[in-house]
Amino acid sequence: MTSIPSRRRGVLRPLAARLFPPEQAGAESPHGVLPPLLIVLTFVSGVVDAVSYLGLGHVFVANMTGNVVFLGFAIAGDRSLSAPDSLLAVGAFLAGAAAAGRLRRTTAAAGMFAPLVAVQTVLVGGALALTALGAGPPGVIALLALGMGLQNAVVHRLAIPDLTTTVITRALTGLVADPWGPGPLRRLVTVVALLLGALAGGILTLRHGALWALVLAVVLLGCVALSPRWDGSGRRP
Questions:
Q1: Which of 32, 61, 98, 205 would disulfide-bridge 144, Cβ 3.0–4.6 Å?
Q2: Residue 184's domain spans which residues?
Q3: Residue 237 falls inside a structural domain
């Protein structure tokens, strides 16, 4: 993959050091510039969930906790929710996560990051194309959830503390339960990133249609996918 420009690295490194302070002055953050890239993916999670919930019939494609709850409500008889759509989203999400999980046996997690985000970019681009063509929700839901499954699998494998890109309940709990420091700061940034992503996606979807929200998601994912390759420790080779 093409390396990101040096100017962008100059922005990402200080942000990474703020989220994960290096042990020695002048040293790099222990996870390279991956932490700010995960913040961008958290923002994207908010954008695509805004598209799916507001534009595709009250279903989540990134936050599976909500989907499982919605599935229960739909089975209970809530006619505003669709059990088939929720099942489709969960199934596609699991398929994406399983596909990424099979790669981890032969590829280091950091080495999977940029390629899998590139695949996710293509999948969200496919959802964008279907939306532009006026296709129904099922295909768009499946592609978005499949991409989010890939994203969550690689983020799970990276296991960078507090930066899961989707899980917010635990982040909110740790934010108020732990003394202030780098950990609570990361959780606060995660919550704000998801909130702003949902806000941006919501504004675009409600005022201009899901198409433009998906354009934003594709652009951001493309920028993340063009990040440098990383070795197994998350540092530059």
A1: 61
A2: 39-225
A3: no
